[in-house]
Design goal:
Distance between the termini: 36 Å
Oligomer: single chain
Structural class: alpha+beta
CATH topology of the largest domain: Fumarylacetoacetate hydrolase, domain 2
Number of helices: 8
Strand content: 25-35%
Radius of gyration: 19 Å
Number of domains: 2
Length: about 290
């Protein structure tokens, strides 16, 4: 099942993506929450309820794409936990040792943009880099969870572009500033439930394209720490709550490792494609251009 978060008349809503388009969830099962974390908090049975109602319901008209604005699947996550150096080839190109424990940093909700919305190159820097990544979404509270049952706590998956301001990232030992400029983290377009994908979303091709040229090409099975192991390790340290977002790291091919470096610039279009999940596409704009347009 594929769910989409969107805004209509300044109000959030959820939709079911189908061959007809985005079907408003409120028309399929009236009374359900209008945000993904609140929906997931109802438990896994709600997805079966939605699927059955969709099968049994009369034809539901898709929402007019011209009157909605797509949102990231989750706009107000309690925690956005990102893994760095989680592909061995990316650790090598970054001249870093293969980590023995996940390298974790946090993203803020203010850094997020949806599919189709601009990633903003800030006034302070031109070193805007791309990082295509898999997202796993927590669907059940996890604390001290063992690896063999960890995937029971994952509700589904999505796509992320962990766009990084490289010079700011490297100004401090912690990466927080360079990873949290406004409108730098693209997320979406769909949330795909776990039952629609291989366990742990393993074995999926992942690719990043810049203006159509392939920049990153790998497989989610290449991750050093898979989703189940990540849940086990992190839940030993902290409570993972429903709606928390795990951004699972990027493979080799980032712009900073190229000679000369390749930075995203205004007018570019960047796409992250993950097999069976979809395509996340965003144009690049400069911050001053966005301010003039506002």
């Amino acid at each position: 099942m594929r769910l989409v978060s969107y805004e209509r008349h300044a109000k959030p809503a959820l939709g079911l993506r189908s061959s007809e388009g985005i079907l408003p969830l409120a028309y399929i099962v009236p009374g359900l929450p209008d945000t993904l974390p609140a929906l997931l908090a109802l438990g896994p049975s709600v997805m079966a309820q939605i699927a059955k109602a969709h099968r049994d319901a009369p034809q539901i008209k898709a929402v007019d794409a011209g009157v909605i604005r797509l949102l990231p699947p989750i706009t107000q996550a309690g925690k956005i936990l990102c893994l760095g150096l989680n592909y061995a080839d990316h650790a090598a190109e970054s001249k870093q040792a293969r980590p023995d424990f996940p390298v974790i940093f946090l993203r803020a909700n203010t850094s997020l943009v949806a599919h189709g919305q601009p990633i903003v190159r800030p006034l302070q820097s031109s070193a805007l880099d791309f990082e295509g990544e898999l997202v796993a979404v927590i669907g059940r509270t996890a604390r001290h969870v063992k690896r063999d049952v960890a995937l029971e706590h994952i509700a589904g998956y999505s796509i992320f572009n962990d766009a990084s301001i490289r010079d700011y990232q490297l100004r401090t030992p912690q990466w927080t500033v360079g990873k949290n400029f406004d409108a730098s983290g693209a997320f979406g377009p769909d949330f795909v439930t776990s039952d629609a994908l291989p366990a742990g979303a393993a074995g999926l091709a992942i690719e990043t394209r810049l203006n159509g040229a392939v920049m990153q090409s790998a497989n989610t099975s290449d991750m050093i720490f898979g989703v189940a192991e990540t849940v086990e390790l992190l839940s030993a340290c902290m409570t993972l709550e429903v709606g928390d977002v795990l951004v699972m790291g990027t493979p080799a091919g980032v712009g900073a490792a190229r000679k000369p470096p390749v930075w995203m610039k205004p007018g570019d279009v960047v796409e992250v494609i993950i097999e069976d999940i979809g395509t996340l596409s965003n144009p690049i704009v400069a911050e001053d251009e966005q301010a003039r347009a506002a």
